[in-house]
Amino acid sequence: xxxxxxxxxxxxxxxxxxxxxxxxxxxxxxxxxxxxxxxxxxxxxxxxxxxxxxxxxxxxxxxxxxxxxxxxxxxxxxxxxxxxxxxxxxxxxxxxxxxxxxxxxxxxxxxxxxxxxxxxxxxxxxxxxxxxxxxxxxxxxx
Length: 142
Hints:
By secondary structure, the protein is an all-alpha fold. Helices cover 65% and strands 0% of the residues.
């Protein structure tokens, strides 16, 4: 149910997975991935159950649901090395920043930029621009 365009359904899936984790119930693999991400973001623990809340980046607010899903998207890319070469870029960034979580946050900025550009320009996702962003990031961290 996670892969849906319906914001409420998507957020409810995350909230349900987190509640199952808190209740020590058995999680399916996707729920386990999500709860592992939520666990490392204690600032979101209390927010996960508020699925109807709105977040305004222009006011400095971070959308915890978007943030969690960007982590998940990046981890999926890394698990299949797509786009090709992302694992090497990730390793370079991790070795420089010092830990995987901080590296993910830096790389997620590139994902967010790619999505924003696609939406703003009403154009397909530009994978090459995404890779260029990651390569620039890897060079900056060296």
